[in-house]
Design goal:
Layout: E1 11-15, E2 22-31, E3 36-41, E4 46-49, E5 54-55, H1 66-70, H2 72-75, H3 96-135, H4 142-168, H5 174-193, H6 210-233, H7 248-251, H8 254-272, E6 277-280, E7 291-294, H9 296-312, H10 319-322, H11 324-346, H12 363-369, E8 376-377, E9 380-381, H13 382-409, H14 417-435, H15 444-447, H16 453-466, H17 469-476, H18 483-512, E10 524-526, E11 532-534, H19 545-558, H20 570-594, H21 596-604
Helix pairs in contact: 3-4, 3-5, 6-11, 6-12, 6-16, 6-17, 8-11, 9-13, 11-16, 13-14, 13-16, 13-17, 14-17, 14-18, 14-19, 18-19, 19-20, 20-21
Protein name: Delta(14)-sterol reductase LBR
Main location: cytoplasm
Enzyme class: oxidoreductase
Length: about 625
């Protein structure tokens, strides 16, 4: 059993979560499993803190200044009554004006030094908390910050009064006194701000199976994509019918790679266009906010116009279907090269710009999860760009190519009802994501995960080539769907979309402005970070209602493919596993961030994704 530093009932100084402020707390317990102390603040708030966030009270007491301890005149408790206390020694008398000026200068210097220190601390503390909450639409908790500055001011007042009294009785030469004052001021600044510690940014808890797990995923993810695509090409895409591996030279097509590069840089050009509003992201660890241009929907419109122009001039878009595997290989090669570039450039990035989840010090793990949080080339944000543009818009273009390929291969004047359903459902999903593009700035991908192989491969390969699996399957395996069945599937997709959109809109509205009268019916649990955890509305139904809506829509996308094979249902099976894993990651981070408030929230909302099931 590991030893503990602080005993129950001991009064110590505990750091308030999400800030640099320390308050007097009382230790009420210790968990030997999680190694967290349960402490109680004076206002009754109970939190679980790490040992590194707790200090003894003695470390916060200011040392006596060197000037006050070294002067014999200041240690004296009695004085001769033969002359005035402020009178200089015999033979060293100065005029009244001469003796008063240095004292006024010293007094002014000390007051200005302490005032500057007070302002510096207040300015350092407030933006890191209140500005963050203001961006999220949360009420400013100025009372705690103002109290902290008031406490600091009260601590400095005795020193100011002491200096005023002692200056009147100082017998040291003015040059020596000035030097002492400078030393004293520097020491006070150092001792006052030394409690502001920079937390370690090293990743201690490894995810995805650690180094071994991430190493295997680097090979497993591309292999899964190619296996699924080769299975769809077969007449009998059964799980036991393993497809033959094609010749290596047939997997590489220079024209396909060139078209992929053209597509990528065309989307980059649309991203750089000065259209759409510019918004601020969430504050980084250093308090800085990055700016993002919101023009994904405009990029989609421009892409649609470009594709329509190509079709008008009879460009064979079904070429994409004929060389689908080669396009996937091109995207995989590009994502691998991009990942290598991202890792190399991250080695020169400042520590404050590294990802909290990808700074373990292990090459394979950091390469996979992403070492740098927001890699940018000038104002061009690589992660934010890849998150929605090339892959998500490319997904719609691939679906359209599959629709045209189905019509050509089966000599149809109209696409099948199944293909129309799949294209329509997934088009709605993509348009919704692009229309609400700003909401992605608060997701885990942007705020926590670095940009490495995981997101690069996922955005550029997995999303466009796996999410379009249903449309790719229907080209070679047409499935007839009756109108009543199509109507039922449409209703199911509508229910899933309604839950997904309403839950996300409710969360985003509450983050922007919790005091909105339209949200007055919502109840929430306050947390130590200033954020509230909703316990009514959609977020009181399950902890992740948006995930529930996502899964219902994924099922609706697979149902038009029928039940002859399980292959079209790979997406919904994978998506359930993905969201369950992501929910576990969210659970872990929220428990660390919100402490006991999160435990109370879990008691109020016991179901994670599926009501009464999970």
């Amino acid at each position: 059993m590991p030893s503990r530093r602080f005993a129950d009932g001991e009064v110590v100084m505990g750091r308030w979560p999400g800030s640099v402020l320390y308050y007097e707390v009382k230790v009420t317990g210790y968990n030997y499993v999680s190694h967290l102390y349960t402490v109680k603040y004076k206002d009754g708030t109970e939190l679980a803190l790490k040992e590194s966030d707790i200090k003894s009270q003695s470390s916060f007491k200011h040392r006596k200044s060197q000037s006050s301890s070294s002067s014999p005149s200041r240690r004296s408790t009695s004085r001769s009554r033969s002359r005035s206390p402020g009178r200089p020694a015999k033979g060293r008398r100065r005029s009244s004006s001469q003796s008063r000026e240095p004292k006024d200068d010293k007094k002014k210097t000390i007051q200005e030094t302490n005032l500057a220190l007070l302002v510096l601390i207040c300015l350092f503390i407030k933006p890191s908390e209140n500005n963050t909450r203001r961006y999220n639409g949360e009420p400013e908790s100025t009372e705690r910050n103002d109290t902290s500055c008031t406490v600091l001011e009260e601590k400095l007042k005795p020193d100011l009064e002491l200096e005023r009294v002692l200056e009147q009785y100082s017998l040291r030469p003015r040059k020596e006194e000035k030097k002492k004052e400078e030393i004293y001021s520097e020491k006070k600044i150092f001792e006052t701000v030394k409690t502001i510690e920079k937390p370690s940014s090293k990743t201690k808890e490894l995810e995805f199976g650690g180094r071994i797990g991430t190493f295997m995923l680097i090979f497993f993810l591309p292999a899964t994509v190619f296996y699924l695509l080769l299975m769809c090409k077969q007449d009998d895409p059964s799980l036991l019918n393993v497809p033959p591996f094609p010749a290596l030279e047939s997997l590489w097509e220079p024209r396909a790679f060139g078209l992929f590069l053209l597509w990528f840089f065309l989307q980059a050009l649309f991203y750089l266009l000065p259209i759409g509003k510019v918004v601020e992201g969430l504050p980084l660890s250093n308090g800085r906010k990055l700016h993002y241009r919101i023009n994904g929907f405009y990029a989609f419109i421009l892409t649609a116009a470009a594709i329509g122009t190509l079709l008008y001039f009879q460009f064979e878009l079904h070429y994409l279907y004929d060389h689908f595997v080669q396009f996937a290989v091109s995207a995989a090669v590009f994502s691998l090269g991009l990942s290598i570039y991202l890792y190399i450039r991250s080695l020169k990035a400042p520590e404050e710009e590294l990802a909290p989840g990808g700074n373990s010090g292990y090459f394979v793990y950091d390469f996979f999860t992403g070492h740098e949080l927001n890699p940018r080339i000038g104002s061009f944000d690589l992660k934010y760009f890849c998150e929605l543009r090339p892959g998500l818009i490319g997904w719609v273009v691939i679906n359209l190519a599959m629709l045209l390929a189905e019509m050509k291969i089966h000599n149809q004047s109209m696409p099948s009802l199944s293909m129309i359903l799949v294209n329509s459902f997934q088009l709605l999903y993509v348009l919704d994501a692009l229309w609400n593009e700003e909401a992605i700035l608060t997701t885990m991908d942007i705020t926590h995960d670095g940009f490495g192989f995981m997101l690069a491969f996922g955005d550029l390969v997995w999303v466009p080539f796996v999410y379009s699996l249903q449309a790719f399957y229907l080209v070679g395996h047409p499935t007839a769907v009756s109108w009543p069945v199509a109507a039922a599937i449409t209703v199911l997709n509508g229910i899933g979309y309604y839950i997904f959109r309403r839950a996300n809109s409710q969360k985003n509205s509450f983050r922007r402005n919790p005091a909105d009268p339209k949200l007055a019916y919502l109840k929430f649990i306050p947390t130590a970070t200033g954020k509230g955890l909703l316990v009514t509305g959609w977020w009181g139904f399950v902890r992740h209602p948006n995930y529930l809506g996502d899964i219902i829509m994924a099922l609706a996308w697979s149902l038009p493919c029928g039940f002859n094979h399980i292959l079209p249902y790979f997406y919904v099976i994978y998506f359930i596993c993905l969201l369950v894993h992501r929910e576990a990651r969210d659970e872990h981070h929220c428990k660390q961030k919100y402490g006991l408030a999160w435990e109370r929230y879990c008691q109020r909302v016991p179901y994670r994704i599926f009501p009464y099931i999970y």
